[in-house]
């Protein structure tokens, strides 16, 4: 299955505790908790470009599977890391945050991020 497409946030679990754990201010957490972000994923072989628009904030990450890339975290920090693919899952670790992005079915992606034992889950649906 290809990850390519446009997706909208459908549901999320543990948003506030996770964002607090990675250092976002209460003000930013309150602003962002109810926004339905839009994710656009372009997959071309092993190369990916992921654009996530949350309100006025746009986060763009480009990477090639298995090669080091500079990726921007949720907090805006840029970190060098390597994204790995295992079947229908993309896995990466960014500054202690373990992220797994799984293509659940043709229209659904589950993104699970874990830091310090706090698990944040986001479900996005193709639009």
From TrEMBL:
Residues in Cytosolic fatty-acid binding proteins domain copies: 5-22
An example molecular function term from Gene Ontology annotations: fatty acid binding
RNA-binding among keywords: no
Keyword Transport: yes
Matching InterPro entries: Calycin, Fatty_acid-bd, ILBP
Gene Ontology terms describing biological process: fatty acid transport
Taxonomy, superkingdom: Eukaryota
Family of this protein: Belongs to the calycin superfamily. Fatty-acid binding protein (FABP) family.
Annotated protein name in UniProt: Fatty acid-binding protein, liver
Species name: Pagothenia borchgrevinki
């Amino acid at each position: 299955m290809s990850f390519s497409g446009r997706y909208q946030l459908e549901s999320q679990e543990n948003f506030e505790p996770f964002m607090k754990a990675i250092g976002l201010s209460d003000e930013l957490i309150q602003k962002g908790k109810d926004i339905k972000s839009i994710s656009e994923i372009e997959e071309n072989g092993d190369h990916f470009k992921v654009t996530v628009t949350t309100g006025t904030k746009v986060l763009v990450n480009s990477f090639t599977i298995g090669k080091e890339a500079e990726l921007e975290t949720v907090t805006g920090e840029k970190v060098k890391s390597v994204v790995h693919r295992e079947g229908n899952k993309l896995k990466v670790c960014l500054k202690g945050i373990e992220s797994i992005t799984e293509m659940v079915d043709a229209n659904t992606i589950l993104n699970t991020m874990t830091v310090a034992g706090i698990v944040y889950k986001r479900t996005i649906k193709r639009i």
